[in-house]
TrEMBL record:
GO CC annotation terms, alphabetical: plasma membrane
Location(s) in or outside the cell: Cell membrane
Name of protein: Olfactory receptor
Predominant cellular place of this UniProt entry's protein: membrane
Superkingdom to which the source organism belongs: Eukaryota
Record lineage: Eukaryota, Metazoa, Chordata, Craniata, Vertebrata
Pfam family, one: 7tm_4
Signal peptide range: none
Species per Swiss-Prot/TrEMBL record: Moschus moschiferus
Keyword Membrane: yes
Membrane topology classification: Multi-pass membrane protein
Length: 323
């Protein structure tokens, strides 16, 4: 009995993935691979631009660079494994690998939740208290925001991962998902998980409620301040920066609410996979695009960097021709 119990606890899982019920799996593979490459490249570009351009050495862009780091790690936790599995035609993931993926996913998703919530405070101070902005959003405060976001995510990972993975999985080892997400894993347990699911539901509500409360309070004050602004240019700039943040928040929080807050009876495994694909694969791609396309500072920094590269390339060509 001890050996069979160990087997049920620590044997490999099988990820059924996204490609199993697709008519054109290699077309979907090419699309996800392209999204992954563009996502990593665009987020890396954002980090480099923010580091190199002195105009972007502000609290908002420092926090955006942290968001880009989270997005790179977030998508890299799930997509490479999924793509490699499709290439070599194998679906297995070890118990240790599933545990690691589960922990990293929860930690990074949680950290992004808290960071997006705390970023609204930065926008609130910038618009409602611009004269005190350098004091209220100094380097120490920025570092505290980042540390708080990472700690919040880590607590989520350290709390939920051990409890989820200690359940005996004596049913099928096939996870009807493309990564080790909590709801899909709990369906394999042969124990009653209802108490844990209720506790996790409360935990998720709190994780969403705390940042959402900060966001709601910040944007209520921001809307009042913007409404009272006399300058059309100042109003336009305030709305542009805040709308970018609100789009990202709506996409990320909306998908998470669907997965973890909406009762299971309202969604199917296929819908779960589609929504999870959206916030694990597409959101890391959309974040840098949303912030850069609507931001003159970022586009200006990119043009400056491209101009520098082209000019240095031209100088190099001239030197080679002279020699």
């Amino acid at each position: 009995i001890g050996n069979s119990g160990n087997y049920s606890m620590y044997a490999d899982f099988v990820l059924l993935g996204l490609f199993s019920n697709t008519r054109f799996p290699w077309l979907l593979f090419a699309f996800i691979f392209l999204v992954f490459v563009i996502s990593v490249a665009s987020n890396t570009m954002m980090i480099i631009l923010i580091h190199l351009d002195s105009r972007l050495h502000t609290p908002m862009y420092f926090l955006l660079s942290q968001l880009s780091i989270m997005d790179i790690l977030y998508i890299s936790t799930i997509v490479p494994k999924m793509l490699v599995d499709q290439m070599v035609d194998q679906r297995a993931i070890s118990f240790a690998g599933c545990t690691a993926q589960h922990f990293l996913y929860l930690t990074l998703a949680g950290a992004e939740f808290f960071l997006l919530g705390l970023m609204s405070y930065d926008r609130y101070v910038a618009i409602c208290n611009p004269l005190r902005y350098p004091v209220l959003m100094n380097r120490k405060v920025c570092l505290l925001i980042v540390v708080a976001a990472w700690l919040g995510g880590s607590v989520d990972g350290f709390l939920l991962t051990p409890v989820t993975m200690q359940f005996p999985f004596c049913a099928s080892r096939e996870i009807n998902h493309f990564f080790c997400e909590v709801p899909a894993l709990l369906k394999l347990s042969c124990m009653d998980t209802s108490a844990y699911e209720t506790a996790m539901y409360v935990c998720c509500i709190m994780m969403l409620l705390i940042p959402f409360s900060v966001i709601s309070a910040s944007y209520t004050r921001i809307l009042i301040t913007v409404y009272r602004m006399n300058e059309a240019e100042g109003r336009r700039k305030a709305v542009a920066t805040c709308s970018s943040h609100m789009v990202v928040v709506s996409l990320f929080y909306g998908a998470a609410m669907y997965t973890y807050v909406l009762p299971h009876s309202y969604h199917t495994p296929e819908q779960d996979k589609a929504v999870s694909a959206f916030y694990t694969i597409l959101t890391p791609l959309l974040n840098p695009l949303i912030y850069s396309l609507r931001n003159k500072d970022v586009t200006g920094a990119l043009q400056k960097a491209l101009g520098r590269c082209s000019s240095s390339g031209s100088i190099g060509t001239i030197i080679i021709l002279k020699n």
